[in-house]
């Protein structure tokens, strides 16, 4: 043991406390830095010096500067953040679809259809009235125009959602590349066994942002790199990142889905193989495009088609041509693309001529030009009191069949495409006709919106709680850092005092010689 040993102990103490002060200052400087994790200096006693009378300490060793972070809290936060982001987006998209339909409302489609049935009842009350026929034509046009508008706006929502999906995939690919790059830098920086704390913070922040886009799992490798899974799919493996794109399934393009086609995701190296569900916002967008949005458009197509088929089937039996022209009973609703009507499943081939869907339904231009072509009766005598056609069409307000004179002319078939089966898909029956089918559409959507809102609220609350717990562990507390600074300052001053005392001892020893 010597005076040099005392000076060495004091030197290590001053160096250690300098590091503590610098680390605390670094924490304070980054108190508002997103993704920053507070750091702590790990100090351990130096290897003691063994002497005949015992062991003497040799000072302090700066073991490491580490991040104060709990991986379990990271896992919990990312899972809840992913579910919260997905739930909020699902609620936003479904609420947008519900807002387009706008039910219940005095100016919605239900009210427009009710007004149309009432106009047929008015015509039945006065079957020779030209004014009543004009009102029927106007009400029918209003229903057709509203269905056209709904389909156009739903298609806009689909296109906008598809663009957002493409942007989200771009973000996923960018973040995956960022994580892979940081993996390489971290592995290189930690070759000596020391933690690259700030680089790890950057990587964790990138993974946090990625978790909002998809369900993320992270496995750390022994060399300091990570493997990141998106759902059950390997997205990043060390310094290698895979890139997402729209799958080449069902004529889907590489960056944007084609209108009307189902959407799936794939990796660029295997674009024809759809991925398993990946969670988060991108899974929500895919799910809404393929699910609720497509189903709503299909249900409106079915409504438009069955409305046209039922009304046209009865109207075709009309014989009171007040206009004096032939034929006196053209179809009331037609395909606006060519002015014809072809009965059949609207989902089998929606591009076929005469196929009436929500997008194509329109009042027959012939009737629009001459409302007198609207038939009120099937009687050949065209007596003023004959009104069976008008009464039968008015009865479609709640009926499930189109009937005239005891003969069933058309049975309403509310059919949807089931992508898991071959066409024509499945039939969804209803007990109260066209109004019930539309009411089931709007009420079912309303239930889904409410459920999505509840789930979003639950997951957002859980995510906020998880984030608070994580910040309590990893966040910078300025008061705590100031306390650390004062303690380190006192320790540094004490170490300086040891050096001063050792210097005095050295002077005393020199003066004795």
Description:
The chain has ten helices and 16 strands. It has 513 residues and is α+β, with helices and mostly antiparallel strands. The strands form seven sheets. The chain has a four-stranded antiparallel beta sheet with strand order 5-6-7-8. Strands 1-4 form a two-stranded antiparallel sheet. Helix content is 54%, strand content 12%. The chain starts with a helix and ends with a helix. The radius of gyration is 37 Å and the shape is rod-shaped.
Itemize the secondary structure elements and their pairings.
Blueprint: H1 3-29, E1 39-45, E2 49-51, E3 54-56, E4 60-67, H2 71-101, H3 109-125, H4 130-189, H5 197-213, E5 216-220, E6 226-230, E7 233-237, E8 240-241, E9 244-246, E10 265-267, H6 280-315, E11 333-335, E12 361-363, H7 365-369, H8 388-394, E13 401-404, E14 407-411, E15 415-416, E16 426-427, H9 433-474, H10 478-512
Antiparallel strand pairs: 1-4, 2-3, 5-6, 6-7, 7-8, 9-10, 11-12, 13-14, 15-16
List keywords for this structure.
54% helix, alpha+beta, 10 helices, single chain, two-stranded antiparallel ribbon, 16 strands, rod-shaped, 513 residues, four-stranded antiparallel beta sheet
């Amino acid at each position: 043991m010597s005076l040099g040993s005392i000076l060495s102990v004091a030197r290590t103490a001053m160096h250690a406390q300098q590091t503590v002060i610098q680390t605390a200052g670094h924490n304070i400087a980054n108190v508002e830095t997103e993704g920053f994790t507070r750091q702590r200096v790990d100090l351990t006693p130096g290897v003691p010096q063994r002497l005949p009378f015992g062991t003497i300490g040799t000072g302090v060793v700066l073991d490491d500067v580490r991040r104060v972070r709990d991986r379990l809290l990271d896992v919990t936060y990312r899972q809840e953040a992913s579910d919260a982001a997905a739930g909020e987006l699902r609620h936003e998209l479904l609420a947008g679809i519900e807002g387009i339909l706008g039910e219940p409302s005095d100016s919605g489609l239900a009210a427009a259809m009710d007004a149309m049935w009432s106009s047929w009842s008015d015509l039945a009350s006065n079957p020779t009235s030209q004014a009543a026929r004009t009102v029927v034509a106007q009400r029918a046009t209003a229903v057709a125009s509203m269905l056209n508008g709904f389909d156009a706006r739903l298609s806009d929502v689909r296109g906008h959602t598809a663009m957002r999906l493409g942007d989200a995939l771009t973000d996923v690919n960018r973040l995956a590349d960022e994580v892979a790059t940081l993996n390489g830098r971290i592995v290189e920086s930690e070759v000596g066994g020391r933690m690259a704390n700030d680089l790890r913070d950057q990587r964790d922040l990138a993974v946090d942002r990625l978790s909002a886009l998809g369900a993320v799992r992270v496995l750390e490798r022994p060399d300091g790199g990570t493997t990141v899974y998106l759902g059950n799919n390997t997205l990043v493996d060390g310094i290698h990142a895979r890139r997402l794109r729209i799958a080449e399934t069902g004529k889907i393009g590489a960056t944007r889905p084609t209108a009307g086609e189902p959407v799936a995701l794939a990796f660029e190296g295997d674009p024809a193989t759809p991925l398993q569900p990946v969670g988060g916002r991108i899974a929500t967008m895919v799910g809404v495009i393929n699910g609720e949005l497509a189903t709503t458009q299909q249900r409106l197509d079915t409504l438009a088609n069955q409305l046209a088929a039922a009304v046209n089937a009865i109207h075709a039996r009309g014989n009171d041509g007040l206009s004096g022209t032939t034929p006196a009973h053209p179809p009331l609703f037609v395909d606006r693309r060519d002015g014809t009507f072809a009965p059949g499943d609207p989902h089998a081939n929606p591009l076929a001529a005469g196929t009436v869907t929500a997008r194509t339904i329109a009042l027959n231009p012939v009737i629009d030009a001459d409302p007198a072509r609207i038939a009120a009766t099937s009687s050949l005598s065209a007596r003023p009191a004959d009104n069976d056609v008008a009464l039968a069409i008015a009865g479609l307000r709640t009926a499930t069949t189109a009937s005239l004179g005891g003969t069933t002319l058309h049975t309403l078939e509310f059919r949807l495409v089931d992508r898991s089966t071959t066409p024509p898909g499945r039939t969804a029956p209803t007990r109260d006709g066209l109004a019930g089918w539309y009411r089931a559409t709007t009420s079912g959507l309303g239930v889904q919106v409410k459920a999505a809102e509840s789930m979003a609220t639950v997951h957002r609350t859980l995510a906020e709680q998880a984030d608070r717990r994580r910040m309590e562990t990893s966040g910078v507390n300025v008061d705590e850092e100031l306390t650390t600074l004062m303690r380190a300052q006192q320790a540094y001053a004490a170490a300086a005092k040891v050096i001063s005392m050792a210097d005095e001892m050295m002077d005393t020893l020199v003066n004795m010689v």
